[in-house]
Amino acid sequence: MIRKSIIITLGLILLVFSGLSFYKSRHFKEPVVIGPGVTQVKKLSEYFSDLRGTANDENIYILEGAKKGGTILILGGSHPEEPAARLTTWVLTENATLEQGRIFVVNSANRSATTVTRPSGAYPASYTIKTDWGGQKFRMGDRWANPLDQWPDPEVYIHYPTRQNLAYMDVRNLNRAWPGRANGTLTEKTCYALVELIKKENVDIVIDLHEAELQYPVISTIVSHQKGLDVAAMASMVLSDEEFKIGMEKSPLELHGLSHREIGDHTNAIPLLFETPEPFLDATRGRTDEKLLLEGKDEFVVRAGKRGLLFEKIDEKGWPIDVRVGRHCSTILQVLDVWSQDHADKAVVLKNVPKYDEVIKKGTGAFLHNPAKADPKTVYFE
Amino acid sequence: MIITILYYLLVAFVVFLMGWNLLKSKKWQEEVLYVIVLLPFLLRLLRLK
């Protein structure tokens, strides 16, 4: 009996430690110190009340310029395991100011997916970006919403409204659920609410920030709906000439559920999706840890590259997080510049956002502000 | 919602069966095994993921 009690006690200790780890990971709060450009912070449920009280009732940071112009929506965290996307939205919400137009920024588009990591993926629960004041911790997240928020998955995911058959787990993938539906799953409701926002606020361009594995052909590129090909092509050419190589691709007409297809088909907005390289996502990677996530260095992915198995170059320098965040920042600035030149009445003039070289030189952490030193009224949590 | 309730009832039933076997077991190796196998089921019941 004593032996049995000892074994059960040891089991309970393991249960408490693992349970606390999961609980902390799900409920960890990421601070956002809003910058001078943010004039309002709304909740997504203000556009669709069914989301109130759910994991995806996320913050929407609104930046407004003194002069009227166009409206842009920037989505980070469609796939939270692609951290450069979310970090770019932090750089924007904490630093950017607007001279003209409006920008809506969503740091955690699929917030539920930020509260879970890949089952059996050995992902780190969190990662920390170094700053002058120590560092800021972020939840790692996954590609799909947390099963605690949306369950069970079907045998086959049938996309609404096209009825295209997709992989079962993509029923929790925000970038397979557009345009969403009001009486659907949490993921579909989230897309529906964002589409309501796009329609109500007359959004001109939606920018969906992502990262991709190097073994995936859609990488280092801007994917555009046919409505936005001129903007994407011009931005791609200027960036490739002046800063870094980036391609441009047309959204396939028959691949449904993705932002660059459905937002363009169901709203007046032009959807653009940006991809940067993230070796952490490659199937042939080595140890899946925070170091790989932030430094983007992996000898096995390099070896795959030497065998011609990759769609993007990689060497011993890897793809560090600052390079990836810098690419997203510069691509946003370039797209807005091209758009504003062609649409003077709907221009969006963004200031105080670092470009590619500046992010690499100073590091992403240089653009994150210390919540402990900030006015509490300016601190929000994701 | 009904599927979720049925799922948790099934998990609770498995926890009960393993707990019962743990109490009845005479071998320490089996007891350790039952405790280890019980952990994910208990975490699932507590909605910790």
Per-chain topology:
The complex is a heterodimer of chains A (382) and B (49).
Chain A: H1 2-27, E1 31-33, E2 38-43, E3 59-64, E4 67-75, H2 83-95, E5 97-106, E6 126-131, E7 134-139, E8 157-158, E9 165-166, H3 186-200, E10 205-212, E11 221-224, H4 229-242, E12 247-250, H5 259-266, E13 270-277, H6 290-295, H7 299-306, H8 321-342, E14 349-351, H9 356-362, E15 379-381
Parallel strand pairs in A: 4-5, 4-10, 10-13, 11-12
Antiparallel strand pairs in A: 1-15, 2-3, 3-5, 5-14, 6-7, 8-9, 11-13
Chain B: H1 2-24, H2 28-45
Helix pairs in contact in B: 1-2
The oligomeric state of the chains shown is heterodimer
The structure class of chain A reads: alpha/beta
Outline of chain A, from the CA principal axes? globular
| Classification by helices and strands of chain B | mainly alpha
Q: What is the mean predicted local confidence, pLDDT of chain A?
A: 97
Profile the largest sheet of chain A: 9 strands, mixed
Helix content of chain A: 25-40%
Low-confidence stretches of chain B: none
Largest β sheet strand count, sense and barrel closure of chain B? none
Rg of chain B? 12 Å
Number of domains of chain B: 1
Count up the helices of chain A: 9
Order of helices and strands of chain A: HEEEEHEEEEEHEEHEHEHHHEHE
Low-confidence sequence ranges of chain A: none
Estimated share of beta-strand residues of chain A: 15-25%
